[in-house]
C-alpha cells in the first residue's frame, strides 16, 4: 500500500480492533488503532494511507461522518466502512469508499484498500 502503509483503524469493540490490527500487520500494513471517530479525525494527516472504520461508534460522530470528513480533507484516501448492524446506501458513503458487512474477511478489507489506491493513482 502507498506511502508508509499506515492505516487508521476505528473500532469501538476492543477485541475486534485488536484482532484486525494483528491481521493487518500480517499483511505488511501499519495499523493505527482508535476507538472513536473524534479521536480518529485528529489523526487524518498525510502520513495515513487508508481508513477502516466501523459505522456505529461512541461519541458525537459515527463512522459514516468520519468517512465523509476523511474524503473531504484527504481526497483520494482509500476508505473501507464496516458494520454488523447498519447497511448504508451508496449515497451514504463517500465517493469511492467501500462498505463491507461484518463479519468480514481481512483479505477483503486489504483488497478494497489496494483497489482504491490503484484506481486513484491511475
UniProtKB/TrEMBL annotation:
UniProt keywords (A-Z) are: Phosphoprotein
Q: Which Gene3D superfamilies match?
A: 3.40.50.2300
Q: InterPro entries from the entry?
A: CheY-like_superfamily, Sig_transdc_resp-reg_receiver
Q: Where's the Response regulatory domain? A: 6-117
4-aspartylphosphate, modified sites: 54
This chain belongs to the protein called Response regulator
Amino acid at each position: 500500500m502507498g506511502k508508509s502503509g499506515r492505516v487508521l483503524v476505528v473500532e469501538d469493540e476492543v477485541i475486534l480492533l485488536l484482532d484486525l490490527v494483528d491481521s493487518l500487520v500480517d499483511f505488511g500494513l501499519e495499523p493505527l488503532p482508535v476507538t472513536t471517530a473524534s479521536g480518529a479525525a485528529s489523526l487524518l494527516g498525510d502520513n495515513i494511507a487508508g481508513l477502516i472504520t466501523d459505522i456505529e461508534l461512541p461519541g458525537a460522530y459515527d463512522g459514516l461522518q468520519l468517512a465523509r470528513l476523511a474524503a473531504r480533507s484527504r481526497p483520494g484516501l482509500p476508505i473501507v466502512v464496516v458494520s454488523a448492524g447498519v447497511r448504508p446506501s451508496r449515497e451514504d458513503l463517500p465517493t469511492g469508499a467501500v462498505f463491507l458487512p461484518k463479519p468480514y474477511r481481512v483479505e477483503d478489507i486489504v483488497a478494497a484498500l489496494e483497489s482504491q489506491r490503484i484506481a486513484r493513482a491511475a
